[in-house]
Design a protein that fits this description.
Number of domains: 1
Strand order of the largest sheet: 2-1-3-4-5
Radius of gyration: 14 Å
Strand content: 15-25%
Bound molecules: FE2/S2 (inorganic) cluster
Order of helices and strands: EHEEEHHEH
Low-confidence stretches: none
Number of helices: 4
Shape: globular
CATH architecture: 3-Layer(aba) Sandwich
Mean pLDDT: 91
CATH class: Alpha Beta
Distance between the termini: 18 Å
CATH topology: Glutaredoxin
Largest sheet: 5 strands, mixed
């Protein structure tokens, strides 16, 4: 079984249209929300939530990526720090249940459809071996 990892930029700012939570960056606020939502939506340890420091798309905050060996990689931007966590957690559950990461488009929430910036193919077995 390949365990998916959800990478989320902890440093992304709140968009101008959303109010912040004190000094907490929007990305960290999203991570905090995701921690609760992933516990509710997925089995213990089914998804690894990995905070990262800047994904080089600061002007399209909040940013995240979902990946697993042998599966598609989804790159998200424009995620709402205060509203995206339930949809993202649900998508993580759907993604984990697939063999290749291909969650049917019709099953994706409107927020996920809107925030999906890129979808990358899985690395081949040979490419994964070279990467190690
Ligand atoms: S601060 Fe989040 S992508 Fe740069």
């Amino acid at each position: 079984m390949t365990q998916p990892t959800l990478f989320v930029c902890a440093l992304c700012k709140f968009p101008a249209a959303e109010s912040g939570a004190g000094d907490t960056p929007g990305g960290q606020h999203l991570i905090d929300q995701l921690t609760d939502c992933l516990q509710a939506e997925t089995s213990q340890g089914e998804i690894t939530l990995q905070p990262v420091r800047c994904m080089a798309a600061c002007d399209r905050a909040c940013n995240a990526a979902l990946s697993a060996p042998g599966k598609l990689t989804f790159i998200f931007n424009g995620l709402s720090p205060s509203q995206s966590a339930p949809d993202l957690a649900e998508f993580c559950r759907q993604y984990a249940a697939t063999a290749n990461g291909k969650v049917p488009y019709g099953l994706r929430s409107p927020a996920i459809k809107q925030s999906t910036a890129y979808v990358l193919p899985p690395l081949s077995v040979e490419e994964m071996a070279v990467a190690r």
